[in-house]
Amino acid sequence: MIVVRALWCALVLLASEPLVAARAQARPEPAVFQPGPQATGDNTYVGYVEQPASGMVTSGTPFQISGWMGDSSAQGWAGFDQVQVYNGLMDDGGTLLSTASIGLDRPDVAQATADPAWQTSGFVARLDSTTLPTGTYVLLLYGHTPAKGWWYTSFPLSVSTAPTTLAAAGSPLVSIDRPRANETVPGGTTSYTISGSAVDPAATRATGAGIDRVEVYLGGPRGEPRSTPLGDAMLNGTAWSLEFAPNLYPWGDVSVYVYARSRLTGQESYAVHFFIIQ
Predict the structure, then answer these.
(1) Quick one: DSSP state of residue 20?
(2) Can you give the pTM of this predicted structure?
(3) Which of 41, 258, 217 is nearest to 145 (CA)?
(4) What span, in angstroms and rounded, lies between the C-alpha atoms of 19 and 166?
(5) Cβ(61)–Cβ(272) below 8 Å
(6) Which residues touch 152 (CB under 8 Å, ≥6 apart)?
(7) Does residue 29 or residue 227 have the better pLDDT?
(8) Phi first, then psi: what are they for 112, rounded to 5°?
(9) Is the Cα dihedral 207, 212, 217, 220 positive or negative?
(10) What is the pLDDT of residues 7-29, one digit of tens each?
């Protein structure tokens, strides 16, 4: 019980970090698990559903659901041997949407929990939103442990026809053109250019694009412990670009966050893509 309490305190400290002002949504809440099929024993599960960060995806565009989860009673490993995403209840009319890749590298979780076994607590599930009509859903993320069966947590998801750029009214419009969503970038590459566009909606021919800064982060939102700043992008009209070396980063599923700031209003917004270094 002392170990579980200490672990939960570490997770609460993570959740209480200051919010990034540019984010349109609050930091995700800790997952609350409930018993599913063959569930037995105490609820000793913790984790986060971190992506999609905004809870919104664009219809017809592939996307990922990712985060981390573990069983605090497991010894020597994170505790889950299967993770699946359902629309509806498993074994009770629900539809299986995706089986996640598990055991992904999460050194930030291992550090926060002071347990090296939790370094492999990451998961990612790839989905095609064409399987979900436009609308709002409460999806279920199921995790299976060999000794205690299936346990699940719920999270909201909105599927819309609007772009996934996260911008309030009047904020910059920012997009990521390269890499494409779920594009595979060779891990041995020493130079790869991330690029896209950014413009203030109030910009005119006289003001130009109205953007004075574009920042690029790899592996998570700005301010997150796992996020790596790649630097400021070069600006050329409405286009921006930044070169980085994929061979210097771990292979696997990667998120890229791009923040654009308007020099006209000072407002900021961001866009996010997921790709694979392999």
Answers:
(1) P
(2) 0.54
(3) 41
(4) 15
(5) no
(6) 33, 34, 36, 86, 90, 140, 141, 142, 143
(7) 227
(8) -65, -35
(9) negative
(10) 434 443 333 332 232 233 334 56
In this prediction, residue 264 carries a pLDDT of 85
CA distances from 104 to 43, 77, 124, 125, 253 (A): 23, 12, 8, 11, 9
Q: What are the phi and psi torsion angles at 68 (to 5°)? A: -150, 155
Please provide residue 129's backbone torsions phi and psi, each rounded to the nearest 5 degrees: -70, -5
Task: Catalogue all structural domains in the chain, each as residue range(s) with its CATH number.
Answer: 2-160 (2.60.40.10), 173-277 (2.60.40.2550)
pLDDT in tens, 41-72: 999 999 988 888 767 787 777 888 889 999 99
Q: Minimal CA–CA distance to 259: which of 5, 24, 11?
A: 24
Token digits of residue 143: 């995790």
Does residue 37 have a cis peptide bond before it, meaning omega lies within 30 degrees of 0?
no
d(CA 235, CA 260): 11
Residue with tokens 């659901």: 65
Q: Which amino acid is at 65?
A: I
Q: Which amino acid appears at position 76 of this protein?
A: G
Token pair of 74 as six digits: 């497991």
User: Residues with Cβ < 8 Å from 204, sequence gap 6 or more?
Assistant: none
Specify the pLDDT at position 64: 85
Q: Rounded distance, CA 42 to CA 71, Å?
A: 10
Half-sphere exposure in the Cβ direction for 9 (13 Å, CA): 7
List, in order, residues 6 or more apart from 71 with CB less than 8 Å away.
44, 45, 78, 79, 80, 145, 148
| Confidence category of residue 79, pLDDT binned at 50, 70, 90 | very high
CB 46 within 8 Å of CB 62? no
